[in-house]
Amino acid sequence: MIPIPLVVVVLGGWCALYLADTFLTSSKAYKSTYEEWLSTHGLSISPFHIRWQTTIFNRLFYKWGRWKPYFLYIWFSLGMVFGIFAMFGSMILLGRTLVQTLNQMMADTPGSPNGRMLQVVVPGVNLPISQLTYFFSAILISGIIHEVGHGVAAVRETVRFNGFGMFIFVVYPGAFVDLFTTHLQLVSPVQQLRIFCAGVWHNFILGLLGILILFPLPAILYPFYNTGVGALVTEVLEESPASGPRGLFVRDIITQVQDCPVKSVDDWHKCLNDISLKPQTGFCISTATLQQLHFPSRVYRRLDGSVECCGNNSLSDICFSYSVNGYSRQHACLPARKAMQSSHECQSNAECQKSAANSVCAVPSIENQTRLIRVKHPPQLDMLFIGYPVHLEYGVSLSSFIPRYKFLSVDLPVVIETFCKYVISLSGALAVINAVPCFALDGQWILNSFLEATLSSLIVQKENRELLGFFILLAGSILLTANVALGLWMVTAR
Questions:
Q1: Is residue 221 part of a domain?
Q2: pLDDT, tens digit, for every residue of 170-229?
Q3: 493 within a domain of the structure (yes/no)
Q4: Would residue 490 count as lying in a domain?
Q5: Do 47 and 169 meet the contact criterion of CB atoms below 8 Å apart?
Q6: How do residues 409-465 score in pLDDT, each as one tens digit?
Q7: Of 192, 286, 364, 483, which has the most beta carbons under 10 Å away?
Q8: Residue 8 sits in which domain range?
Q9: Which listed residue (35, 147, 235, 345) is catalytic?
Q10: In the chain, how many domains are there?
Q11: Is 147 assigned a catalytic role?
């Protein structure tokens, strides 16, 4: 859930700003001075919205728009082709996503959020509060690159550029460019397409650059960070079961979970997922160890069907069940760390007797859905964990990048990797959403210019072309609204 203090701070800040603005604009003494100050600095304030516009970047935009005209012509022509395909592709993508969402609702199953092609992101619900900085930074950069595309393309097509600006709506940052509307309407439909498609084109290129940095990142950081040898612990939550004197610590390198090797963060998640889906595995323990470590205690069965034989008197002793020579199962209360020392996983006695004749497969008798998990992080002693694998998974932050030198930060590769992922996803989403033929989005102007450029000879009357465009825009708007509404409902209903 979204933290209440964060909501209070955001709402309180906006209310204070709006009340101050209302007081100053209604005050006879300060009104003219205040409005002049806002105008001079290009500021405008309205409820939950603040906007800043400036002309200090105009010369820079004109410089970019006149740099290598032929190259820019090819560049924005490619963007025009991409934008047209993206407009139709976004409709198909939204349609498939809507069908997927409806199928999940009809099946009355939550489904996997990662399985859907598009999903609504809600801070505090399916976006960790700790990653808000990445989220808003990626949104702002994606928005700026988007608007720079429009601005440079407009200058290239001889449309007057009035200014560049930024805004904040509630908590979401964004950017915009101010173009001279009359000039924009006078250029040809193809020129308009180059301008209108430039935003989604630049978002696509930004996402592509993120991919080109993310995937070869191990090679880029190879002189400083090693990969493929384990998962490095970067943070352990205080309330996590992995914390404590015999738990995990920052800079520990996890190499194995049970008998599952861990060479990266993906391996860590895969191993824990496999453990949670399979029944509790056993551990090969010699009969001599059983006789030496076992001490008698009362055996009783829990409500969930598991057996307890340690009396819950010790946090380090665990009840193991096993069978000898095919007889009925027996139970022994053993100190877990000593019993499991140098043992390996098993499913039956036959597996154990391949390596040691006098050994049995002893299975921890613990509550359903919980697991006894052994985590290797040499040179420290193995960490033993009893509980739900998901609690272990999300209580520890890991990185696949291991510093070659002690002075290097363990967080830098994680920051680069996470930021690239957010830029790729959010810039790509901005490209897809803006390409949708929907009212008030770039897709509206892309569609109108596309119809003017392609159907003016087939549909002679402009009113008929506008009517066709209206119905397409209406369909696109309904499709986008339905996706957002159902996506929000699916997220908040979890």
A1: no
A2: 889 999 999 999 999 999 999 999 999 999 999 999 999 999 999 999 999 999 999 999
A3: no
A4: no
A5: no
A6: 999 999 999 999 999 999 999 999 999 999 999 999 999 999 999 999 899 999 999
A7: 192
A8: 4-47
A9: 147
A10: 3
A11: yes
